[in-house]
Amino acid sequence: MDGYLIEFRKELHKHPELSGIEIETAQNVKDFVSAFNPDKIIVNIGGHGIAFIFEGLSKGKTIMLRCELDGIQVDEQNEVSYKSVNKGISHSCGHDGHMAIMSGVAQYLSENKIAKGRVVLLFQAAEENGAGAKAVIDDPKFKEIEPDYIFALHNLPGFEKHKIILKENEFASASKGMKVKLKGKSSHASEPENGISPDYALALIILELEQFCDDFDFFCMVTIIYAHMGEKKFGINPSELELGATFRAFNDKNLDELSFLAAESIKEIAKAESLSCEISWHEEFPATVNNNHCVEIIENSAKETGLNFEYIEEPLKFGEDFGYFLQKYNGSLFGLGSGTKHPRLHYNNYDFPDELIETGIQIFKLIIKNANS
Length: 373
Known about the structure:
Blueprint: H1 3-14, H2 23-34, E1 40-45, E2 49-55, E3 58-68, H3 95-111, E4 116-124, H4 132-138, E5 149-156, E6 164-166, E7 169-172, E8 174-183, E9 187-188, H5 199-210, E10 220-229, E11 236-237, E12 240-249, H6 252-272, E13 276-285, E14 288-290, H7 292-305, E15 309-311, H8 322-326, E16 331-337, H9 356-371
Parallel strand pairs: 3-4, 3-5, 5-16, 6-15
Antiparallel strand pairs: 1-2, 2-4, 6-16, 7-14, 8-12, 8-13, 9-11, 10-12
Helix pairs in contact: 1-3, 3-9, 5-6, 7-9
């Protein structure tokens, strides 16, 4: 593998940016990939996204491959020379590695012009907050590159390194974030009977949400993310509360049912405690539902490349905004194992394994060929 792809990955790793503000990352990608002479470059697609188009020798299908630009709010604890210089922000999901893989595919396409069709390499912004894919689809510039097929990979700790992870239909879960705001009436801390504090409601809501999934016959999860009530003023009885939780299910229908019933339950608790209640939803990810023909293309490509592959029985629990693309276009998300003992995604000691770059390039090369055959 060309060492400069590893160096590029490390440079990206050192300068992560959060969703929606990936300005420097997009510029670095543009400067790097432009050296491979794409036929066309589309900038600022769906925000700071950038698409590189490589035309074939004759007309054919449009194959789109997607990777992500953004980092996350995790303070990296790795002591490496390329450690993030942006405090509290890191590439602890491996998007730096995904970008390096895609850059390697660009080099391959530059040196090996495809016989027919065209390949679009999309470096998408704002995957982590669920806004990016939808923004790309809604961008008028996307109309000129609408794909026949779209593929993406995500590295997966917990699986054998270099193994291709597949699943027909739902591959990754639907998820959304709930924000609850309750408001009562403040009072002096010595006179709590004259105020309306959300403290008891907070206890009831946490207990309710933590056992909420016990009554459903389908997979679901509710995770309490944060809770904030009152100020650090010992003389004041609090009047306001904000709580956040993440909801997950394997498909959109079950998630809708789960979140609706949970919201109704919280409203009842608030009403019983004489509190006003405001509920809003954030960072919504639809289930990632693969096209089974596209899964077959990936499997055949893995066989041709000589890579081991595995079909998982249940969808992965995390959300992926690639699901928005799969609501409209034929495609598939697949996993690339990054080691059974490798630190997990979003952990502060995660770092992308550089040896996966070449594996990712090889599988995408075969996917391009087989999808256009």
